Amino acid sequence: MLLLIKEVFIWLGIFLSVVGLFLTSWIVIPAPIYSLLPLGVGAPEVCHWLLLLNALALAVSFLGMRGNWLQYVALGMSAVGISLSMLPLLQISSVQQQMQSAMQNELGKDYLTSSSEKFGRSHPFSLLDAFQGIHTDEIRYTPNIEFASPDGVPLRLNIYRPPQVGKYPGVIVIHGGGWQSGSPANNAEFSRYLAARGYTVLAIAYRYAPTYKFPAQLDDIYSALTFIQEHAAEYETDIDRIVLLGRSAGGHLAMLAAYQQDILPIRAVISYYGPFNLTQGYREPPTPDPLNVRSVLEDFLGGTPDQLPEQYTKASPISYANRPLPPTLLIHGNRDHIVQIFFARQMFQALQTSGNQAILLEIPWAEHAFDYIFNGPSNQLALYHTERFLAWALKAKV
Predict the structure, then answer these.
(1) Which domain holds residue 191?
(2) pTM for this structure?
């Protein structure tokens, strides 16, 4: 009976070691194809769970030790898995210090001194929250409000509001999806979280490529802004205190809208891993390229940069960096294989060179769409500083 139990431990340990190392390896290995991209995105954000899995594999393999060479291999695999799963966790403190310095260098060391905001995140990272999730309080939620119907396509927005009736600063959220998919319901945890912190969050839709080419999407953002302005009192939104925030393709549209439109007095814009220079992005795609960036851009703009140079220029936020612009917060993963980190650095430099306020927060281990794991280490850091940037940008004018 004891031998049978040992045999079970041997094979269970080998199995757990193989699974643990396979999943953990995506913390450092970029996804070569789209179907594997969720592993590349998710592995760093669940590293705490992977650490437990690899530790369990190590313990089980050790308990079943009989000198079998496979067991030594399993122990080695578990040890490697433990080391890899600790990489993001070991960097959190230094990354937070860099982020804090970036915020203070641009906004001043006392940029929140006069703020009376009560932040949901008192610490940039909580291991407890990573395991049990980030708590959000009760809010009011009003979905599927139609704000326009261009070409007969109904466009809707979802509204997230604090529980008490009032007048709140507004955060207009634009979803990602390569300009081809997505929904205002995306990243609902984030919208609920901000609403519970005292913001009216309006998550908006737009028409999709390739059926509708640029600038149809930007026109839809303008339609949403006009609608929000007209219904500001009804939706309890302070029209003089508005920030645009978007992710990926939504971050791109948020920047274009904030940098060009004059419908609303936009206080600031926040881009999570949005593209900045579409011409260069086409000519210098990532390696590997799991999304096929060139194909996505051709669907969005209707052709290549050689065929449509003006279209690519008009659709690139970096083209507008040389004019006075609202303050910009850029949050980007260094391992992004959709929009590479050097594009974010170029945009940051272009904004600062022209005298605009800009902050770039880099997350060394993070891939594109890192914040889809809401309680992961990357999003905890991003959320901590996003809260503070919003408080600074939307503080009431004296």
Answers:
(1) 110-393
(2) 0.95
